[in-house]
Write a structure and sequence with these properties.
About 35% of the residues lie in helices and about 20% in strands. The chain has about 200 residues and is of the alpha/beta class. Helix 1 links the parallel strand 1 and strand 2. It starts with a strand and ends in a 6-residue tail after the last helix. Bound molecules: 5-O-phosphono-beta-D-ribofuranosylamine.
Length: about 200
Amino acid sequence: MDRALKIAILISGRGSNMAALIENLKMHPKVKFCCVVSDNSQALGIPKAKKMQIPTCVIDGNLCSNQYVFEEKLDTYLQTHQPNLILLAGFMRLLSAKFVAKYKGKILNIHPSLLPKYPGLNTHQRALENNDKEVGATVHWVDEKMDNGEIMAQCRIKVKPQDTAQTLSQRLLPYEHQLYIDCVRKLLNQIRDTV
Ligand code: GRF
């Protein structure tokens, strides 16, 4: 592991995980948030990142003829920042095997389920339909399959009788934020101070 983490964050939406990560870790001496990239021009996270003075870039997925075109543009932009850690935070796009291989071991994702349960969408609804007693979130290394790579850590909350998918999502969110922050801190603790 290098002696400092240059972190890029990829988002598609509101960016609450992104904001929590930046707010909690921006003063850490071994962290530099080098950029925030969105595949959605309307992502609410982009103005938030700008306000926090992080360089931003929108690569509108709808304007790219296919995934490879999108990833070429993403790769070209990332190369200008040379991140050694890429955090997917509500990034709603599956990355190709080629892209993942290029950034092997450098991409983390947060997913709102207790993987391997419920990869994909509507995780809380599916948990409710199965009468699960608890739901949670998982931070995992990214491979070419959806929500699939090696698990780094999980957090969980108990389901209450009155819960809906929406209340579960709201109640889980602060735990997700803390989980992602803790995972990055864990990586930071692995960086040695001496050469
Ligand atoms: C979070 O629930 C995260 O686990 C999932 O998408 C949601 C993104 O929320 N991958 P936000 O954009 O970070 O607010």
